[in-house]
UniProtKB/TrEMBL annotation, chains A, B:
Coiled coil: none annotated. It comes from the Bacteria. Belongs to the ROK (NagC/XylR) family. It comes from Streptomyces cellulosae. This is ROK family protein. Pfam families: HTH_24, ROK. PANTHER family: BIFUNCTIONAL UDP-N-ACETYLGLUCOSAMINE 2-EPIMERASE_N-ACETYLMANNOSAMINE KINASE (PTHR18964:SF149), ROK (REPRESSOR, ORF, KINASE) FAMILY (PTHR18964).
Amino acid sequence: MLPTPRAERFPVNTPAASQIFTTVLSQGPLTRLEVARRAGLSAAAVTKAVRPLIEAGYLVEDADAQAPPALGRPANLVRVDGGRALFVGIKVTGDEIIGVLTDLCCRISVARHTSLTSRDLTAVLAAVADVVQELRIEADGFGAPVLGVGIAVSGDVDRGEGTVRYSPFLEWHDVPLAELAAVTTGLPVTVDNDVRALTVAEQWFGAGAGLSDFAVVTVGAGIGCGLVVHGRVVAGAHGVAGEIGHVTVDPSGPRCHCGNRGCVEAIAADAAILRRIRDATGVEVADTAEAVRLAHSGVAAAREAYARAGEAIGRGIATVANLLGPERVIISGEGLAAYDLFAEQIRDAFTAAAFGSAARCDVQTRPLTFEEWARGAAATAIQSFIRADT
Amino acid sequence: MLPTPRAERFPVNTPAASQIFTTVLSQGPLTRLEVARRAGLSAAAVTKAVRPLIEAGYLVEDADAQAPPALGRPANLVRVDGGRALFVGIKVTGDEIIGVLTDLCCRISVARHTSLTSRDLTAVLAAVADVVQELRIEADGFGAPVLGVGIAVSGDVDRGEGTVRYSPFLEWHDVPLAELAAVTTGLPVTVDNDVRALTVAEQWFGAGAGLSDFAVVTVGAGIGCGLVVHGRVVAGAHGVAGEIGHVTVDPSGPRCHCGNRGCVEAIAADAAILRRIRDATGVEVADTAEAVRLAHSGVAAAREAYARAGEAIGRGIATVANLLGPERVIISGEGLAAYDLFAEQIRDAFTAAAFGSAARCDVQTRPLTFEEWARGAAATAIQSFIRADT
């Protein structure tokens, strides 16, 4: 038997060094001095961490063309060489596997979709291994090694232990997915909740870059929320966090799958909207696309269902803002396709329920495709690779 | 004019050093090795930080009587010398100033209460200066210097700027209280929201010591909440955070002073309970003590008002748990006097509304006197003194 090739490791492993690299990765190119300022570290610490990273090819240095020559020797800009390493991100849904190949800067170069014929663990593991294998073959053309795989699953996921504790869509309980997928793919695997993975991608490579406190709210089949507080994604002491979907909006409202009534998710998730239109009109609505068509064609019950969903989402966001006071809330998810139908209600309900200066929070939308959920998974793999502590 | 005496400064000013001191302060006595482990720093960093702190008298070293001699040279225990420095904590309410003198370990040695005859800034500043002066005279007897004052005020307070942005009880807007009180007392002043100050005291010296994620929920005239996430008190990007009082429990419930309906505070604050009893019975209830008496004597409307308050508080706590997944929630405040009247409802509503493993959060109660609110203010002064970054 051939020995398993030892995976390439990140050349620095102190918390300060990974913080410095993360700062350049998410906010660069930057001068060394600016890196030190933003990371809250000394210039000496930056110089010490940057050297081995340049030697190993993870960072490169460019002369700053824009630096005013009057300031003497131009300060060089440090940036990440995205092409130095590749990562695979996988999003597992109830009926599909979406895989992307990204560079170290989390830019997608290739994407693959595979239908799932079964939600059995064995079938899902085999499909994941197939997608990873296909993407590794593609990776050969880029001349850089694939250094890790991230897998994003909705539900209760313990990233530290690499375990899917409970996934309602897959009907899985306590599956040690990271370990199993590492065996089938031969690569280090990070497993995380899909909304938290998306939040990591926003934090490092998206609308949350440089912010220490923000939230991502996803709208669609479920209503999810990823929270970044004091610069780190909130995971919850017991694995549950960001459950904006189960903020109560109306205690006499529709029954939620969690057992309570009137949760945001029981009013604003896709299925809840379809149900409300059906209950009001007696017409069975096939899917969200049809519900949106009905609303756009002026069917009052459909418009009302979306308006009510928007109000619930806006109240949920206000609750997050009142408790945490984030700088920004990014609304995303496939439900954004209907955004024109509830944007105003989200805004109005948020403004009405936000307490005092919490209303100053910047609420913005950011459409994301399913592939970007997979990109979120790749972001967690990048994070695991460069973080000394994970 | 005599030069202003320069205040004594903490002898170390790096983030690592204040973290090391904080670890010993909140969790000591500890061996150097254990300090390093808990602070996530190297033993060398601990040794380097501890030396000047011992020289300056802030830390002392004792032989560990319990260390097993079989392990060779006994490891010395490092602890804070509480008597090395004194601090004043002030809680300002609408009609009273409560001041305490504490040592460096935030133990109260003297307390003073002064009635406020006016809520005018000038009158409050004069009363604060008087209480501080009285406590400094007491401090002379302890042979240690008073190194800082903390002032806790309910409402929207910007600690970084030292400003009371809005205090409903005092009817203040944008008052630069830290600067003004520093002039009248001649000491460095830290101003913070009262619930956040209490949370700092719990984090360093109370039921939150050693926890990285917990919440303090205060019940009484208002319903407040202090949140610690990733080891730090959440302040909110715009000054608002922890507003559990404005989580909506019932959108068709009683009108809240914030303009919405059915907020936790509109149902569970003292005044809301009195109002509900009055509306149901037609009897004017003078104060909370009377409301509690009525409930204890079996008046159904009074019992129901408390039960409803408990349900609202339990739902609010579940919302915090669902979003942040804290390890522990500490319920406190003067409203705890009525705890037997709503403990069961808090517990039941929390359990029903907590999502999945969020229900594993440890919800406990901790009675606190008004003086302990002032102690919270002293804790913020201690924090400002030893923190390089604040």
